[in-house]
Amino acid sequence: MVNTKFELYKIKREIKRSGATVEFLRPGQNEYGEKDESSLVSLYVSKGLYHELNSHISVTTGETTQYRSKKIPAIMLPFSEINPIGLRTGDIAKINNKEFRITKVENIQEWNIICDINLEVEDVGL
């Protein structure tokens, strides 16, 4: 049996020690109910544990295959903070004035104590 209170305590302690401030935003809607990227509505501001996941990409050319690793940014927060605001794919997380698009909201181990949010760098083409 896993002591979920202790697991949550460990995450909260690490967030307090080395967490990053994150602001969650959602694109507003225009008069027709369509997404309006120019107007963002603030959902929640908190501290979370920023980390990067490794992903592998294979590129096949002829008879050879090349493997590359790609970093996927993510932020970890207590589930009790994220569940009430209803984050969804397409929302925006702003960390250190850098915008990331949320690609996945994951409930770790389905314990309802820790939430891992996968992000994608928002490229503005500058």
Properties at a glance:
single chain; 126 residues; alpha+beta; six-stranded antiparallel beta barrel; 2 helices; 15% helix
Task: Describe the overall structure.
This protein has helices spanning 4-18, 79-82; strands at residues 20-29, 35-61, 64-78, 92-95, 98-107, 114-121. It is an alpha+beta fold. The longest helix has 15 residues, at 4-18. It is globular.
Secondary-structure blueprint:
Blueprint: H1 4-18, E1 20-29, E2 35-61, E3 64-78, H2 79-82, E4 92-95, E5 98-107, E6 114-121
Antiparallel strand pairs: 1-2, 1-4, 2-3, 3-6, 4-5, 5-6
Structure summarized in a few sentences:
The protein has helices at 4-18, 79-82, and strands at 20-29, 35-61, 64-78, 92-95, 98-107, 114-121. It is an alpha+beta fold and 126 residues long.
Number of strands: 6
Shape field: globular
Mean pLDDT: 89
If you compute it from the alpha carbons, what radius of gyration comes out, rounded to the nearest whole angstrom?
Answer: 17 Å
Helix content: 10-25%
Count of helical regions: 2
Global structural class: alpha+beta
Would you list the SSEs in sequence order as H and E?
A: HEEEHEEE
The span between the termini is: 51 Å
Provide the spatial order of strands within the biggest beta sheet: 1-2-3-6-5-4
Task: Tell me about the largest β-sheet.
Answer: 6 strands, antiparallel, barrel
Low-confidence stretches at least 5 residues in length (pLDDT < 50)? Answer: none
What portion of the residues fall into strands of 2 or more residues?
over 45%
